[in-house]
Amino acid sequence: MSSDLTGVPGWSDVPQTEVDRYRSSLGPAAVENAGLSSLDCSLFWKSCASELPALSRLALRYIFGTVNSADAERSFSLYNLVHSERRRSLGEKSLKQLLFLYFNRFVGRDFFD
After folding, report:
1. pLDDT attached to residue 64
2. What are phi and psi of 50, to 5 degrees?
3. Got the DSSP string for 8-53?
4. What digits encode the pLDDT tens for the residues 64-92?
């Protein structure tokens, strides 16, 4: 069971020993003990905080994240605006840079004013 989680912010702070302990005993045992009932993820990770401090902190940070498609929709709308008929010949690198500039154009506006 190999997953590449290196792209998850905070993953590099989790020691491999915690990951191994979770994968070998704590995670499977929790699922097995839950049986047909639902597993309370929040309660599970809070109860693991003493044994898996870094991993439980990371899990609790992401459990309650708001999931929606607004960022993806905004990104596609922006892509359609930037990738107009006049800009069809842009290379991939230039297009990514232009999208980055458009997407972040308001960041720091108040800071510099």
Report:
1. 78
2. -75, -35
3. STTGGGS-HHHHHHIIIIIHHHHHHHHTTSPP-HHHHHHHTTTTSH
4. 777 777 777 877 887 787 777 777 788 88
Nearest to 41 by CA among 66, 17, 59: 59
Predicted confidence at residue 2, as pLDDT, reads 47
How far apart CA 21 and CA 61 sit, in angstroms, is: 20
Helix (H, G, I), strand (E, B) or coil at 93: helix
Tally Cβ neighbours within 10 Å of residue 45. 20
| Joined tokens for residue 103 | 């997407």
28 burial level (CB within 10 Å; 0-12, 13-18, 19+): exposed
Is residue 48 within 8 Å of 56, Cβ to Cβ?
A: yes
